[in-house]
Every structure is written in C-alpha cells, then in structure tokens.
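Box 3.1 — From sequence to structure: Dephospho-CoA kinase
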Amino acid sequence: MPYIVGLTGGIGSGKSTIGGLFSALGVPVVDADIIARQVVEKGSPLLAELCSHFGTDVLTEQGELNRAKLREIIFSHPNEKTWLNQLLHPAIRNEMLAQVEQCQQPYVILMVPLLIENNLPHLCDRILVVDVQPETQIERAIKRDNNKLEIIQNIMASQVSREKRLSYADDIIDNNQPLEKNLGKIKKQINELHKIYLKKAEEKQCQN
Ligand code: ATP
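Predicted structure (token representation):
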C-alpha cells in the first residue's frame, strides 16, 4: 500500500485546485467525490439496491441515479439517510482503498471532502488541510456554483468547524489569498510537501 496523504477542507476551500497541483507533479489523486458517483453508476449493483429500496422514482429516464430526487427523499426522512449511508459508505471506502492500492507511485493524495465528518482519518498516514476563512469559502462557492448563500451556509453547518478540521492537520495550506497573487508561494509549499511525503513514503516502505 502506498503512503496515503488525506487531502481535506470545507466546501469551496480549494481541495480540487490543490489536488490538481499535486497531480501536475505526477502524484496520483484518488477523488472520493468521483468514487461516490462511480459506485452508483448506471448498471451497478448498488444502484439496483437503491432502486429496490426507494423504487424507480430515484432513476432518471436514462436509468441513471436521480440525485435531486434522492436528496429530496433523505432530506425529509432522516432514517433513510442513515440507511443510504450504511449502504454507500463502506462501498466508497473499499473502492477508495482499491484505487489507492493500484497506484504504483510511492504516495497518493486521497481527496476526501468529508474525511473528518465520516470518521476516515485512520485511513491516512498524514492529513493535509486546505484552509480558508469561512467568508472566503462562501464567496468562492457561490461564485463557482451560482448557488444561494443559504445553501452554502447549510452545507457549511453540516461540516465540521474550521477549528476542528485544523486540529486534525499534519500540514496546512493557507489558500486565503487570491491565486493570481499566491500561486508561486503555494507551488513552492507543494514542492516542499512533495519532498516530505516522498521521504515519509520511503520510510514506510522500509518498515514493511
Ligand atoms: P468543493 O468541496 O466545494 O468541491 P473544493 O474545496 O474542491 O470545493 P475548488 O473547487 O478547488 O474547491 O475551489 C472552489 C472555487 O474557488 C473554484 O472556483 C476555484 O477555482 C476557486 N479558487 C480556489 N482557490 C482559489 C484562490 N486561492 N483564489 C481564488 N479562487 C480560488
């Protein structure tokens, strides 16, 4: 198993942006959001289970998962949310680990937005948090998704606080400054972290 660096941060903090910079260095990035979609893709056994539990209402005409419909159901039925999480979380975790294991490089970035909320820090050898102030999160998330303030605030309220997230961090990337001013500094920090992670990965290999 490669050395696993968990990359996390709140909504709109810049995880994908930072993940992309690691990727540019040739580091594999396993993205929990992509896996969460893959495990329920059209024709998958899990989508069939969702269908037999919730009915074909949760399918689009094309036979894909109707996420808006599913969100609507679990929003008004908390028990259904628990059922859904119990079905999906183990599948997502197993698939994340399977994809990590397939990577040939010494270390992997495991990008998981809800790493702390879903009690997954133990999967990682080290945790890297992308940190921004809540006001900046709101501003960037609204701009990116054209979303309402209330929706972003609700999502933020469902995530752990900035303080709690930072308490799990081995490393922190401060992404508060606009990228056009700060890209050079961030790339420099990522290069430094890259060297540290390569060294840690080598140490892990030696121990095994
Ligand atoms: P989510 O968890 O909500 O998917 P994320 O943490 O992956 O978000 P990104 O998608 O990387 O965050 O960034 C959110 C938005 O903010 C994007 O539109 C991105 O281009 C922009 N962004 C990221 N970092 C900066 C920055 N330092 N300055 C300005 N804009 C930024």
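Summary of the box: The pocket of adenosine-5'-triphosphate is lined by residues 9, 11-17, 113, 140-141, 144, 175, 178-179, 182 (CB under 6 Å).
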